[in-house]
Amino acid sequence: MPGRSDIDLLIAAAHGSGKIARRYWRREPRIWDKGGGAGPVTEADLAVNDYLIDRLLKARPDYGWLSEESEDGPARLDAEHCFVVDPIDGTRAFIDGQPGYSHSLAVLRGDRVVAGVVYLPEMGLTYAATEDGPAKLNGEVIAASETDLADADILMSKAALKPEHWKGGTPPEFTRSFRPSLAWRLCLVAEGRFDATMSLRPAWEWDIAAGSLIAARAGCTVSNMHGRAMRFNSRAAQVPGLIIAGPKLHGQITERMALAPGVGSSRP
């Protein structure tokens, strides 16, 4: 089936991306500002993107294409399958010489993720999942944690702690942590190193497509910030925020949040 055969292609392409990125990491790559608040891009981002276009679309020429570093177009909306990639997720960390950047690669069928890989080359971490198999880290099955909000360690920005986002003010119980790559945050929750991740800001599909599948197959409830199922390959290429955690903790978070009127899960 497409998801099963595509996963090997994604893993190989992610590892190839890592080899290219490492040629530039900590070697002062050229940097540009995208403008409009979109942040920086480096020559490494563009080199990896060119490699992925060549590697993936040569292998699957009938697939659509959505990448942070490619001009978007309407053709992907009509494609049965679509690649969704972030050549380097965590570009600022990459520029700073931090190892916590990743390559995020996914395949969609319609509006659902059917295969996903997140690879951190400096750490030797390969997260992968298909729609009908377990989530894995370096070939070993991983699973999300089971905990309560009072004991949770949640990956989130400081902005999400503002009291207006929570019923009765910010819950004092949990611990807040942060990692630079959004794709990696989803995977850290999938492997149980952290208990949840959330964002109240719109998230680009290329940042979260692969990680959302990996988290779901690890047992997480995966939703947008309103507690509703995520759907991909939208015209805007964005998801309205995210909440990802084990089912019990996800319910507790959405119950406490002022922006979450209901709970819905996505389990691709």
From TrEMBL:
Cofactor names: Mg(2+)
The protein's name in its UniProt record: Myo-inositol-1(Or 4)-monophosphatase
Pfam families for the chain: Inositol_P (PF00459)
Residues reported to bind Mg(2+): E68, D86, I88, D89, D207
Keyword annotations: Magnesium, Metal-binding
UniProt family annotation: Belongs to the inositol monophosphatase superfamily.
Top-level lineage group: Bacteria
Organism annotation: Paracoccus isoporae
